[in-house]
Amino acid sequence: MRSPRDILIVLLLSFWPAVIAAQGSADSFFRKDFFPMEKGTYWIYQGTVKWQGGDDSNTKSKNVLVKMEVIDYFHKGEISAALIKGHPADLAWYDPQKKPGDYLIVRNGDRFYFLQDVSALDGYRNLINSGEPPSEQHLFFVLPLKHGGHFCAADQPESPHGFYCWAVDRIRPVYLWGIEGIHSRKSTEYQLSYRTVPDQEISYLASGIGITRWIYGHHGTVSDVDVRLVRFHRAAESK
Fold first, then answer.
1. pTM of the model
2. pLDDT of residue 13
């Protein structure tokens, strides 16, 4: 007759392959689906900008909406890319006449890259023509994200204070609610910060959604941005 301990071991061994398979499936989903890239996917953010300038030196404040949309998509092997029009970064150094900028998110396996302006357009053309991912100069982050992780450009040594590198400042469970297009649900939020001497940028990311909050702050002349995701639309994946 088997002891309770023997029975427990048999049960664990019988379930272990299923646990491993489920974990493998979850990890694959996490890597593949972390940042939505389907053409037509868009995000709308709402929040506040503050700036200083114009006819006087007084600080001004305004409630704003900004849209970020995938306008084209590339995929080849382990490389996927989303060419994006608009981003909360357009609100830094606020100018109401400024047009939405060009941005590029690239995934190469577990490595993500972020390019903007001319670099985004050049990077996308290079992907289409050669299939080569961006250089490490444009590294954003590497999965899996872990608290305290740092991601630096190839030519940027990590400073003792963590400046000029992306850093994972916090990972926490959150409950997503009040966002149009997303059913209220639990998720995990990753806070990534990029700090320099004059300013800092903070991106809050949620797997399968992308940026849920974006903050920018300049330490001298006032230029502050704090926007949150209020609407999300994920386009159907092209077959």
1. 0.84
2. 38
Reading the block at residue 39, the tokens are 């053409």
- Residues of the chain predicted below pLDDT 50: 4-5, 7-31, 239
Q: Is 88 helix (H, G, I), strand (E, B) or coil?
A: helix
Query: How is the chain split into domains, by residue range?
Result: 1-33, 34-233
Best CA proximity match to 88, nearest among 124, 122, 48, 57:
48
| 138's tokens | 């444009």
Residues 127 and 121: beta-carbon distance below 8 Å: no
Q: Choose among 77, 72, 71, 70: nearest CA to 132.
A: 77
Query: What pLDDT score does 58 carry?
Result: 87
What's the token pair of residue 114? 């972020």
Contact present, 221 and 204 (Cβ < 8 Å): no
Write down the pLDDT at residue 89.
98
d(CA 61, CA 135): 38
Predicted local distance difference test score (pLDDT) of residue 17: 40
In this structure, the number of other CB atoms found within 10 A of the CB of residue 19 comes to 10
CA distances for 171 relative to 118, 145, 148, 224, 234, angstroms:
32, 8, 10, 24, 24
> C-alpha distances in angstroms, 78 versus 109, 128, 208, 222, 235?
5, 14, 18, 41, 21
Q: pLDDT tens digit string along 67-80?
A: 999 999 999 999 99
- At the second CATH level, the architecture of 34-233 is Beta Barrel (2.40)
